[in-house]
Each structure stands twice: as structure tokens, then as C-alpha cells.
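Our preliminary data section would be incomplete without showing what the modeling component actually yields. Below, a chain of 381 amino acids is followed by its predicted structure, encoded as C-alpha cells that our downstream tools consume directly.
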Amino acid sequence: MKSTERDVIVVGAGPGGSTCAAYLALAGVDVLLLDKEIWPREKPCGDGQTGVSFKFVKDLGIADELAAAGFKTKGASFTSPDHNRIDFDMGEASSYVTPRRLFDDMVRKRAIRAGAEMLQNAWVYDVIKEDGFVRGVRAKIDGEHVELRSKLVIGADGAHSIIAKKIGMFGDDDNDVAVVGRCYYEDVDIPGYLEMHLDKNVLPGYVWIFPMRDGKANVGLGYNRKFYVDVPDLQDTLDRWIVESPYGECLRGKRRIGEFRGWRIPYATGAYDNYVNGCMLIGDAGSLITPFTAEGIGPAMASGHMVSGTCQKALLSGDVSCNVLKEYKEQWDAEYGPAIKKIKSIESAFQNAEVINTYMAKFKDNPAAKQMFLSMMHITK
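Predicted structure:
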């Protein structure tokens, strides 16, 4: 490992961090990518890579790898409390379901091929602060405590981000955080859509079934955290839905594989500015997950790409202060802010069974409204 000060240290090698590192390395920036895990590693998730993710996958030249490993979906399906089903076909748009153990490793390896240096088993537990600037990180690497200095630090260390906590930008309001869980089933026969079931016995949460290769499916459910106190155990709720819902029939008698795992979803409506002097946050670390749909991979890759541009401008100008870094926040808000607010309002409206039934009836008879809703669900395009 180089001992001199780096241009950029990216903390976290998930899709956001690796995307950022890849674009920086491709631009000739000296970038060090750190991750606490030994790779490849598992990651609890819905495993969906929608259109925005595929845009960056294609741009980074790993589309063929994704196509070989993932399941290409037909689109998305929503079912209402009165059990109507509406299919939203994606046409030629590409959307995949791929285990994070495989997908994240594709993006990470692309960053390394581009020239990023990667250190695994590197647990970052603090940032170095001097004269009002973040100047690097403190980490434990292979059991040794070290200080690593850089001109810029990018926090991409996930929903429990240490970097976000250390710079005072860890969003944790109950209204802007979801609690979700998932498991896998095998030998599942479903049509090939990303299914979201808005069942009256699960509201104000929903159940998803995402098809995968070889007849497997990613199955889970989630709730806004402000409602979670009134919800029984997530796994018990899912088990009951499988027994009671007509859309759970495809899972009855099927074998569950792997453990049921839960995690935290910080919504973009709870994000802070996500920058201070010498440091920026992306993806889950910056609370940039799309409300309602809980899509995190697309926003992570989009923010990683966006921050790479801000980094290059800051490094070129020699100014890594908020005067330059604020442009990242301004760009994000301009491109995605209005749509995020609209989706949050849909999440609020979709807590009511009758409202959902009314919406679904409109979609069934109005192709234009149906297309508008689908477009809104994929805000980071």
C-alpha cells in the first residue's frame, strides 16, 4: 500500500462506493477503496438491479457479466388489497435480480481493473479532523490500527455508516427509516415480474417476491419504522401472508433456503446535506434510498457517479471545502428531489387500503396513468 497521502479514500465497496472508485480511477485519480469485509461477501437485500443500475453497469462495461449471473425481469407487478393485479411491462428496458454477493463483486472488481487500490478486512472507525476539514480515516486493517490520509473521504459504508455518524449527518427519524427482512425460496413458479403485494393484512407495509435464476425467489417484506412498533415479528407476518393471501400460494410447500435476515433502510427524505469540508456521503450512508420502493442500488450508483465528478472538480481546483462540495448536494436535489417527495407522498397515501384499490382501478383502465406511475417509481434514471 502506498504510504503517501491519497487523493480520495472511499469507505465501503458496495455498488455506490465501487462505482465512485471506478469512475475516479478511470479519470486518473489516485483512489483507495476500503471495506471491512472479506470479499465476496453476502448482503441482505431485495437483490434488484433496475434501469438506473443497468445504466451504470452498461457504462462501466460489465453488462454481459450481469446478464450471465442475473435474472432479467419482465417488469414490475403490484397487487391491491382487493387482490387486483396490475403488471407494468418494462419493454426493452433492462432490470435484473442478482444476489448481492455476485453483483457487488462485479462492480468492485471493475473498480480495481480501472486502477483503484482495494484493501479488505479494513474496518474504518473514525475520521481524521484537522482545522475544520476531514483529512483521512482511522482504521483497523488486519488487526493493526492505522491512520490513512487523503484530500477527500467518501462515506459509502452503508445504512449504519460510521462516516455519517462521525460528521454528524446520520439520518434516523422514524418517518424516514424502514425496517425490512428477506429470505429465499426455491422451486417457485411466478411470471417473471418484480412483485409487490399491498395486502390488507400487511399494510402499511408490503410483501415482495422477486424472481431469480433456477426457480429461486427473493421474498421479503418491510415497514416504515414509525409503524413497526405495531407489527408482529417480520418473519411471522410473512409466514401468515403466505398462508392467507392468494398470491402466497406460489410459496406454499416450497423450501425456504438460507436464514431470514433483516436490515435498515434510510430514505432519501431523511438525508442531510451529505457533505462537509473534505468529505461526502453517498448511497445508503447518505440516506439516499428511494421511499416506498426501498430501491437502494440505483441511487447508490447514481450518487457514486455524481460524487466522482465533484471530487474531480475539487481536486483540480485544489479546493476541497464546502464551497465546491456543495455542488453535489445541489445537483442531487435538482435532479431527484422533486420525484423523491412525490414518491414519499405515494407511500403515505398507500397506507390506506381503499386508496390503493382506487389507484389500481385507475391504472387498469388508463394506460397513461399506469406509465406515469411506473416512471415515477424509477426516479434515478
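The chain has a mean pLDDT of 93. DSSP finds eleven helices and 18 strands in the chain. Preliminary results of this kind motivate Aim 1 of the renewal.
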